[in-house]
Amino acid sequence: MKTPIALDAGSPSPKPVFAGTQVPADAFITYIRDGKTLDDFLRDFPVVDRQVALDFLDTLVRHTTVLAQPRAEMLDELYDIYLDCRERNWDGYGAEPISYDAYLAAQKFIEAWPLNLPTAEISAAANGEISFEWYRAPDKIVSVGVSGDRILSYASIFGPHKAHGTEPLTDEIPAVVTAHVQRLTLLQNAK
What we know:
191 residues; alpha+beta; two-stranded antiparallel sheet; 7 strands
């Protein structure tokens, strides 16, 4: 199988294109996302060879499956936590139950989480939130709580530096949260 994708070196900011063409690879992804078929794509972009498009699709499926595995594991873990903690006093110390709304908000958080960033440890919090934690050391932590009202409460410790705040949960993870996890990852990789 030849490499189906190349970089368009003639562009000021090189973008992935189908090999031997100027057709952007993301055009094919847009076609599939919009419910169109491979034949629709090839009809609109006849310079793309069918086998090259099939090879790209095969590569895309294989990589997506590998990248999505941690997300699937997080979703399974979240469901187990929800089942274990949906009743008041689930911890024996008067904890608030994890509501179905909190479960759905946490599910949305996981589904929006960028695949290129590390996954978190998930737990139930006594206040009824779902907690996501990235822990490297006692002084290198990022924690995000997801509530049923779709509010993210975050706190980070990077040595002597601390940050905290709240953000609404939307279709994308707030940049401040991903930036803190990226910073933590860079600190880990710098060792």
